[in-house]
Amino acid sequence: MLQVHGLAKSYGPGAPLFEGVDLEVARGEWVAIVGESGCGKSTLLNVLAGLDRPDRGEVRLDGRAIDFADDDALALWRRRNVGFVFQAFHLLPYLDVRGNVELPLALLGVAGGERTRRAGEALAAVGLDGFGPRRPGTLSGGEMQRTAIARALVHGPALLLADEPTGNLDAANAQLVLECLARSVERTGAAAVMVTHSSVAAAAADRVLHLRDGRLA
Questions:
Q1: What are the boundaries of each domain within the chain?
Q2: CATH class of 28-54+70-216
Q3: Strand, coil or helix: what is 61?
């Protein structure tokens, strides 16, 4: 599903973050990328999401190359094809849980009734059936992150990206979120890439890669 060839990114001459990165992720496969702070893990994830541009290389999703040159096309591609789970949840406090989960569907122009139905299914899939009317501020950290997973997957993206998804959680909630991610990837068939400092989180993935000296191993 995801194919990356020769990807390189630097911040100025003589300051490469990574170069020659090759990566393939199958449908329904969950890959963890680990590495020291500042090695470029989050930047690599942002390039895969189309939030940042590489200096060189190619990213293909389901056989199609991402067009990094066209901002409008890139934004539309990301809206349709990518789900992103962040360390800090990034739920909108003025929307209830259902409204947060419906947001990707609203951006894609899905009708209100269909949005509500799909959001309800997504919440039930992460164990939050009945949580739709609640506000994010009333949720635990684990519940907020599971809401974020539902939001990331509600529109059926081909690519799921997670940046330190357990970084703000205690051990018990982290384990619940990791189990939820594993079930969600298996259920939806998305290709999933997670970057993390946590060896426990990495061990939950199907495969672990190390970003070291600018390359994946």
A1: 28-54+70-216
A2: alpha beta
A3: strand
* 151-161 pLDDT tens trace: 999 999 999 99
Residue at 104: amino acid letter: P
φ, ψ dihedrals at 203, nearest 5°: -65, -20
Residue 122 identity (one-letter amino acid): A
**How distant, in Å, are the alpha carbons of 5, 110, 125, 156 from that of 188?**
25, 19, 10, 7
Question: What is the Cα–Cα distance from 144 to 8, expressed in whole angstroms?
Answer: 34
Distance CA 190, CA 200 (A): 22
pLDDT of residue 96: 96
Reported as a single tens digit per residue, the pLDDT across 47-59 is: 999 999 999 999 9
Containing 45, the helix (H) or strand (E) segment is: helix 41-48
Q: Is 28 exposed, middle or buried (0-12, 13-18, 19+ CB in 10 A)?
A: middle
- CA 30, CA 217: separation in Å to the nearest integer? 16
